[in-house]
Amino acid sequence: MSRTTFLNVDDTKAGMEDLDKEKINKLIQEASKNSKFFKQQQRREEENRRRIEVKLSKIKSFSTFQIEQAEKSADRYLNQLDKTRDLSRIFCHIDMDAFYASVEMRENPALQHVPMAVGGEGMLSTSNYLARQFGVRAAMPGFIARHLCPNLVIVPCDFNKYRVDSSKVMKIISEYDENYGSCGLDEAFADLTNHLQKRSTLSEEQRTFPKEENSTETITFGITAEETVQEIRHRIYLATRITASAGMACNMRLAKLCSDINKPNGQYQLESNVNVILNFIRNLPIRKIKGIGKVTALHLESLQIQTVNDIYLKRGILKLIEYPSTFDFLMRVCNGCGSTTIEHDDLQKSIGHETTFNGTSDSLQLISLCRDLAKKTVDELISDRILCKRVTLKIKTVNFEILTRSKTLSSYTDSLNIITDKVITLLKHELDQDLELPALRLMGVRVSDLKMKSSDLPILQFFSKKSTTTTINENTHDMIEDIDDDADDDEGEEENLNEEFLSIENQYNEDCNSKLIHIDDENSNTSTTTCPVCQKMLLGDNDKINKHIDLCLNGEMIRTTIKEQDQQTSPQTNYNKRINLTQSKVTPPAKRQKRKFNTTPQRTNGTMTLQNNSTTIDFQSWFIPIDILNMICCVSAVILALIFLFIIIFDKVYRKVGMILVVNSCLAEFIFGIYLLAVTLFTFHNDLKQIYFYDSFCLITAYIGYMSIGLQNYSYLLQAIYRYILIVNPLGLFYQSVKFQVFLISFTWICCIIYPFPLVFTGQIKYLVDDQLCQIPPGFSFVTIFNAFYIYLFPMISIVLIYLKMVRYVREMSKHVTPVNRLFHAQRELKMIRRIISLVSILIALGLPYQTLIIVSFFKSAPKYHFRIVFIFINASLVFVLIAILEITEPLKTSLIRRINGRATNVVRTVA
DNA sequence: GGGCCGGGCCGAT
DNA sequence: TGACTATCGGCCCGGCCC
Predict the structure, then answer these.
(1) Which 159-188 residues of chain A approach strand B with CB closer than 7 Å?
(2) Helix H segments across A495-612?
(3) Which of A145, A151, A513, A910 is the most exposed place for a label (fewest CB within 10 A)?
(4) CB-proximal positions of chain B, under 7 Å
(5) Distances in Å between the alpha carbon of A106 and those of A98, A153, A241?
(6) Where is coiled-coil annotated (predicted)?
(7) Which domains does chain A have, with CATH numbers?
(8) Residue ranges of chain A whose pLDDT lies below 50
(9) What is the pLDDT of residues A22-52, one digit of tens each?
């Protein structure tokens, strides 16, 4: 037997008995030796070995007499356990064989003959038996699996499919025990005792099933437990075309162990006889026991405990060194005792979400992520009508060190603001306190100490018979008082925050609620406003007002619930669902369905349910085609801009002042194109992986975006100004000089480079989950208006005004006696400006959706995926603008034509 | 001494 | 080249308070 280390292959899975473990372990070590994960595992193992050393030295201090006494005490305990042994029942554990992999192989038979695994590149969920021969197993990262088995086919998880099959399986099992307990999608326990008693009274017909689907041939099963389970497995196969293994025994622990004996597609029944049971369990290696993981195994192995029988032999020492609960567990194991009741927990104990991302230390990003996770968790709380009292923040550093920080609240709540505040306070405290804290790679928010929103029920029942208006006002009134208490409680802790974080926090609150309330921060922290939900005048600081609105919105939810209640369901339905999903000592199926083994966030129904500050997003099928379209536009634009720059530089047409301005425009377009390409690639990457993830790259691109859009628009303004100068002040040579133009160009560049900095550093730019990009969220705010004016409206309006002024000027000029060439010249420049106007109108037309969005967002919330939609136009505008530049810039056009012709001539010549 | 709180660790799927 | 999940339950410990 291989010695337990933290990185060895876990060979306890069925189908992995005959592996060359040494070879596989060597390959795994090789694949992961340089990773931080490996180093962390080494640290963990060393720490555990240190603890083992302490244990061993403690053991040395015990006298033989002490050990003998402990052994006698253990024996007495074993005797007691023996007396409570219940051999009267017969449990069955059904385990679907490589469930996810089997579903995939059924859907795609080609996969049946290749080693294959289900999951993501990050983590595998399960593997088929062919892959297991290579050591590929569940909970193994994809890259190691590929190292072990280069031909491995990895199929992404599709929980929808598995859920359909799982429900078929569970339905069949429920016919044998309606109180069955499921452990996830692929496992279930059933107590067959009652069914077996009734079974003898069943007619043969009731025990007869078709041999094959749609076949007339039938098969009749007998009345024994063995045959009953064969019947269950046969019916499962008929329903799903997937095999299941089963184990039968007098308790659940033994039944589970039995289902593993004849895997796959087999079953095993353990006789309900003490000697048989002891003989069976004592010969098993400890790692087969549910509840003994790597760490416990390592500790037990250090005491020369390899099998369950060794546990028995070392019972004296175990009694002396283990915690009572651990000792109790081990004694139950070595006596073959197990649970004989399928218990159902009353209430889920905690709810939370966590996500892994590329390591980052950027506190802004971390706080924003934390907020998203809190929102997601609170949404779940609210939708299930549950309150919580304890919030926990979990973080994992890039070195795989995990920290959890939790805080108990003064009262039960489901307020987004309270929970978010609390968890962000915990995060800030960590970030502040530990300056050496490495970058983080995971963050999680969890709430616990849950209770049902019980007070809702009588209120709802009572008021549902009255007018809804009364309900809301009554409820809201009560809630305001509640929340004020909570707000007071929170104030004390706010003192711990440093100023930087406070400013970020306030900014966020402003952003979030700018559509709801106006707060005059300049005068004081206190202001009056009207609540958009209950229409009451509110007096207080931002926090209190926000919290009030938060609660009012919950009140709004209550009203909705009342309406729904009258129509269809009771408000308890959701909660009951949750209870029903929760099984004894097993993960609720709904939760298990969510489990994933890849790096992507939770996916259900092929969609991703994520929260940002305002919306829930689903992955849409049109994302990818649109991303590709955008990429085509961006790449075309970048290539065009590069070609233009190349031509201008190599043909030396840049020596003219006007061309310097065109170079400036092309350069701006090039940067803007690169920005759009980066954004599109970023979005495409996230869409493809169906993840929401961002790092400072996203912020940097946003910065470059705002800068380059400014550069682009001002470059056209400079061109217009230059034309204007040429006409209005043809003798003002200084203004037409290269020096002056370069000065203007430099000036606009400096303005455009500097202006987005405050946007970045004051957290105005946010990662918008739905749109997968970083932008200033649309909405009525000074920043939005200033931004729109600074980089768009001002240059565009100026160009239009210059054009109008020039039209008037040329008209005036033509009325007076003017040198012909000067008039001609002016008309030509006017034509130039007209072209610039046509170019600008492209920008205006295709930028219009963006501007409309901004304006609409002043009055109501922006539609979902708004930026995705407007960015299609912006990407397209870039290509059109570059084509327009070519069209209106004569020297560029002629140069390009000459080159194309030249090359064509060359080709002809070569061919000839 | 018992209960609560906050932190850490383990295990299962 | 580097690359190792998400969610939940449960247990234990030390520190603190009553």
Answers:
(1) 183-184, 186-187
(2) 499-513, 542-567, 572-581, 589-594
(3) A910
(4) 4-13
(5) 12, 15, 7
(6) 28-87
(7) 88-114+157-272 (3.30.70.270), 350-453 (3.30.1490.100), 622-902 (1.20.1070.10)
(8) 1, 455-617, 903-912
(9) 788 888 877 777 788 888 888 888 888 888 8
